C-alpha cells in the first residue's frame, strides 16, 4: 500500500468517526447549554443538575441514532475489507 492509500483509509476513518459521534456530541452540547442558561437565570448551582440530564440525553440520543452509527461503521469496514481483498493493503 502506498501513502495515498493509507491517507485515504485514515481520511475515511476520521470522517466516519466524526459523522457517527456528531449527533451525540451535538445533543450533549445543546442540553448543556440549556441547563447552563437555566442555572444562570435561576442562580441554582447544583452540580448534579448538570450531569443527570446530560447522561439521560446522551443515552436517549444513542438509542435513537444507533442504527445510523451501525450503518456508518459497517460501510467503513466494508470499504476497508474491500481494499484488503483487492490487494490495496
Automatic annotation (TrEMBL):
Keywords: Cell membrane, Cell projection, Cilium, Flagellum, Membrane, Transmembrane, Transmembrane helix. Its main location: membrane. GO terms for cellular component: plasma membrane. It is found in: Cell membrane. InterPro entries: Bac_export_3 (IPR002191). Belongs to the FliQ/MopD/SpaQ family. This is Flagellar biosynthetic protein FliQ.
Amino acid at each position: 500500500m502506498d501513502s495515498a492509500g493509507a491517507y485515504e483509509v485514515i481520511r475515511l476513518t476520521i470522517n466516519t468517526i466524526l459523522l457517527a459521534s456528531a449527533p451525540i456530541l451535538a445533543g450533549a452540547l445543546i442540553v448543556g447549554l440549556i441547563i447552563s442558561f437555566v442555572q444562570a437565570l435561576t442562580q441554582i448551582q447544583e452540580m448534579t443538575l448538570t450531569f443527570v440530564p446530560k447522561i439521560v440525553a446522551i443515552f436517549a440520543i444513542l438509542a435513537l441514532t444507533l442504527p445510523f452509527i451501525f450503518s456508518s461503521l459497517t460501510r467503513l469496514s466494508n470499504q476497508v475489507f474491500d481494499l484488503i481483498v483487492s490487494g490495496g493493503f
